[in-house]
Amino acid sequence: MTAQTLVSVVFADGLAHLRLANPAQGNVLDLPMIAALDAAVGQVESADVRAILISAEGRNFCVGGDLRGMAAAEDRGALLRQMADGLHASLRRIAALGVPVVIAVNGSAAGAGLSLAAFGDIVIGGQDSSYMMAYTAIGLSADGGATFALPRLIGLRLTQEMAFLNRRLNAVEALAAGLITQVVADDALLDESMAVARRLAQGPTGAFRRIKQLLADGYLSDLGTQLDSEAEAIASAAAMADAGEGVRAFLERRKPDFRGE
Fold it and tell me: Can you tell me the distance from the alpha carbon of 261 to that of 258, in angstroms, rounded to the nearest whole number?
C-alpha cells in the first residue's frame, strides 16, 4: 500500500481530515504507516488548516505497534527506536501547528494507538471503544507521549495501573477518568466528530493556538509566570481581527464570523 492509501488526507473549509486506512491490520503503527502519517502531516503543514480530525477505518482505531515486525527484526532495539522517532516527529509537527486536534476512536486504541488518541484536544469515543497501554504485556515501556499525557489527563495512580497491570478502560470508564471528552453511538462516531472538528475549524484560530500553548505550559510554570503568559496572550489575541469580530458579534447578538485572523 502507498502512503496515500495508508493515511488519507481530505481538506475542506479549513479542516484537515487524516484517516488511518489499514483496517485489515488494525491500523497498526508499523514503519509504512508511520511514514504515511508523516507524509500526511507534511500535506497539512503546507495547507491553510484551522483544525485537524484524525479517525480510522475498520473495527479498531489503532492496535499499536508492529509486533510481527518486532519478532522478525534482527535488531529489535534499532527498529523500535526508528518507529518511536518517526511517530514522535509527526506528533511534534502536529503540535507545532497550534490548531485544535479532534480524535475519533472506534474499537481498540492500544499501545501507541492509545498515545495517539490521548494526543487530541477533543477525543470522542464510540460506545464500544476501549483503551489500553499494553506495553508491559510484551516487555516494553511506553512511547508516543503516553507518560507525558496520561498522568496529566487521568492522574498518576490510574496511569500506573494501566501501565503496570495493563488495565483496559471501556468507553464509560475512559470518559469518567477524563481520558476522552464524549461517548457516542458507534454508528454516529464519524458524523459527531466531524461536526465538532468543523466547528473548531470555524473558530478563533489565534485564540485556540494561544490556549493550547498556555495549557501545555501550565504544567511546568509557576503561578506568576503563568499569569504573565496569560496577560501577554490575551493582549496579543485582542489585537487580532477575530477578537474584534467576536466582541462586535456578542454586542450585536449574532453568531461571529471568525476568519482565523
Answer: 8
Predicted pLDDT at 28: 96
Enclosing H/E stretch for 102 = strand 101-105
Instruction: Give tens-digit pLDDT for 126-163.
Output: 999 999 999 999 999 999 999 999 999 999 999 999 99
DSSP 126-195: ETT-EEE--TGGGT----TTHHHHHHHHH-HHHHHHHHHH-PPEEHHHHHHHTS-SEEE-GGGHHHHHHH
Reading the block at residue 236, the C-alpha cell is: 496579543
pTM of the model: 0.93
Residue 245 burial (CB < 10 Å; 0-12/13-18/19+)? middle
Residue 236: what pLDDT? 95
DSSP code of 202? Answer: T
Residues forming a β-bridge with 23:
none
What is d(CA 82, CA 79) in angstroms, rounded to the nearest whole number? 5
Q: Reduce the DSSP state of residue 111 to 3 states and report it.
A: coil
Q: What is the DSSP string of 7-73?
A: EEEEEETTEEEEEE--GGGTT-B-HHHHHHHHHHHHHHHTS--SEEEEEE-SS-SB--B-HHHHHH-
Strand order across the beta sheet in which 108-110 lies: 108-110, 130-132, 169-170
Distance CA(27)–CA(21), nearest Å, equals 6
CA 82-121-127 angle, to 5 degrees, is 95
For 133, the grid coordinates are: 497501554
Answer for the pair 131, 168: CB distance below 8 angstroms, yes or no. yes
Let me know the angle formed at the C-alpha of 62 by 95 and 108, rounded to the nearest 5 degrees: 120
